[in-house]
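pipeline stage [seq->struct] | target=DNA (cytosine-5-)-methyltransferase | organism=Tribonema minus | residues=249
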Amino acid sequence: MLHVIDLFCGAGGFSEGARQAGAVVVLAVDCWREALDVHAANHPDAEHWCEEIGTGDPAELAQRLRAFAANALPPGAPVHLHASPPCQSLSKANRASRDTSGGLRLTRFALDVIEAARFDSWTVEQVSAPAVRGLFDARGVLYRHLACDKLGVPSIRRRLIAASETLEDMQECIDRPLTLRQAMDRADMSAPPGFEVQRDGSTKDTRRRLDDVSYTVTTRSPILWNDARRRELSLSIATIKVLQTGRGR
Ligand SMILES: C[S@@+](CC[C@H](N)C(=O)[O-])C[C@H]1O[C@@H](n2cnc3c(N)ncnc32)[C@H](O)[C@@H]1O
């Protein structure tokens, strides 16, 4: 059984996927107390460290992670180290406060921790930005570009996944992802008259049809848009849940 250590775990998106794939999350680290509390509610047997990663020496954190694994797990138990450093300052969705060099700092730090900790396998998730590809290339790490809708997820989210081993070529999912209209339908939401397109909530003039896969879910996206009245409408929480999980009714 694979044991997972989740750095920058947030409320636990990666951890939940790892659990569904049959792994056990044993340690989760984040500096956001409330998100960590949600994680702890879903993974009560895991240990939770509320701390700011990246302030000290990566070798020191690596050493603490190794000591944790040696104390908490049977000898030889395989450990996977995952890190999802924050992406806001790198993401295209955040043009206003994009800060590429600052944004890469924690990704570099995560790669340093991974190198020093030498667990059995590892992954790093980041947004698909040229600066991130440049960093991965410079460090000689293997990575793949994932288009979530090609894997059946009902949103057009794009991500880079760097990993200790070559990831298998991902086959396109046989099931087509839900369109936004189908996701709304599963959540018993319907578009009022005139709200005929979706936008990504930014100031850009974005547009997709309701019968397309949704824009990536963020605090501002997607929204329904009424062109004639220039009015926007938020999606219901139930619709967002379907977009984030693919599940609903
Ligand atoms: C991309 S999100 C993580 C998403 C999460 N892995 C998931 O799958 O749901 C980045 C996380 O990094 C955390 N974070 C940002 N800076 C941090 C730091 N210096 N130390 C620890 N956590 C940090 C944020 O609180 C946020 O939860």
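stage status: PASS
auto-comment: The radius of gyration is 19 Å. The longest strand covers residues 24-30.
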